[in-house]
Task: structure prediction
Amino acid sequence: MTWSAKQYVAFEDERTRPARDLLAALPPGDVRSAIDIGCGPGNSTQLLVERFSGATVRGVDSSADMIEAARQRLPQVQFDTVDIGSWNDSGPFDVIFANAVLQWLPDHDTLLPSLVARLTEGGSLAIQMPDTLDQPSHRLMREVAADGPWASQLADAAGQRTDIASASDYYSMLKPHCSRVDVWLTTYHHPLAQGASGVVEWFKGSGLRPFLHPLDDTEKTQFLEQYLAAVEQAYPVLPDGSVLLPFPRLFIVATR
Result:
């Protein structure tokens, strides 16, 4: 599955806001080494560079297009293209920052403790994951995928996202390895001036990727037309012509 940095940053302000909120929740302390896993085009890495001015900050992502965009944004930072699922850098790191990436990886009950093990004593693992699979936007992706002529091609598309566990589950899996675990859920409501088409454009940079990747250009156009029609019914236009996109996100700050 390919990722487009240009498509992703079309809503950069909205996508960066949760990263700012996650960073703000980190406990105070001396940070010498920080890494941004799933760094994307470097928007979240830039926040780390600004917050920890004296630290060594790095970024890794599985998308070469994202890494190229990140290097252009922050040429002074080391960025590497790696498969996050098999990333095995032992660190240790004072901060491991994972903004909107771990929802693409399975086995959180083993993955998250393994990330904590790469922290220094007192270091923090900071995670933000979209908790959107039950939202109309994602339910409609699955329905359009199952109802069209592409059903067999897209049979596995929905499974590329990992179901987000409950807050208590994440607390329980992390607390034995950490001195402090903070978990919370925030629902952002993003006004999109483009109406329903804005919702489609938003998810073309993220959640729709597994559904569009297997299709040819004609099929992609047909899929998006059907998805847009469904989105128009689910997200009513407000008096100013915009729609309000509810977007729940789960946050975790786990300190070793």
User: Anything to note?
Assistant: The chain is about 40% helix and 25% strand. The chain has a mean pLDDT of 93.
